[in-house]
Amino acid sequence: MQQIGIVIYDDAEVLDFAGPYEVFATAARLCEVTPWCVSLISETITVMARGGFSVQSHFTLDDHPPLDVLLVSGGVHTQAIRNPALLCAIRRAGEPAGWVTSVCTGAFLLAKAGLLSNEKVTTHWEDLAELRAGFPDLDVHSEVRWVEDGNRLTSAGISAGIDMSLHLVERLHSRELAERTARQMDYAWQQ
């Protein structure tokens, strides 16, 4: 069974992690044999996401299983990007992972952790210029929902993470499962 870990932190955008979580959990539920286990990972078990939404993670940065897929959520990342323990844990989890992904401003954390360097990437439209300025080696794309470059997959803001996650379900399993998942979620998948 593959392990999918979604990294969250204080002020993470709720839909950035809840949307992908729902995609992977729904896809797993639709399979006869569960292809993966999805979990939330954070520095401390309880995280205060945006809007004062308290979230309890499954694992901490120090005790999660080895990941096949690392997904870093976005949000107000100004404190997270200055957190060496978080960045080091992201790097440790991402280096052996088969897929390294982010939603929205999670791309900043992947880049700062050294997991994005020359790849094609995207982020929320409000943050494109800042990502280009802060990480000039990245090939930052606008006007797209998600970008795949090798085993790196980044999405634009918030709801685009659902589209990216459906694409990842297709890559990890099948297009048929991705389409069934979108239908089950009553979601109009933007490919």
TrEMBL record:
GO biological process: one example: regulation of DNA-templated transcription
DJ-1/PfpI domain segment(s): 4-170
Coiled-coil parts of chain: none
Domain of life from the UniProt record: Bacteria
Classification via CDD domains: GATase1_PfpI_2 (cd03139)
InterPro entries, alphabetized: Class_I_gatase-like, DJ-1/PfpI, INH-QAR
Protein name: Transcriptional regulator, AraC family, putative
Organism: Alcanivorax borkumensis (strain ATCC 700651 / DSM 11573 / NCIMB 13689 / SK2)
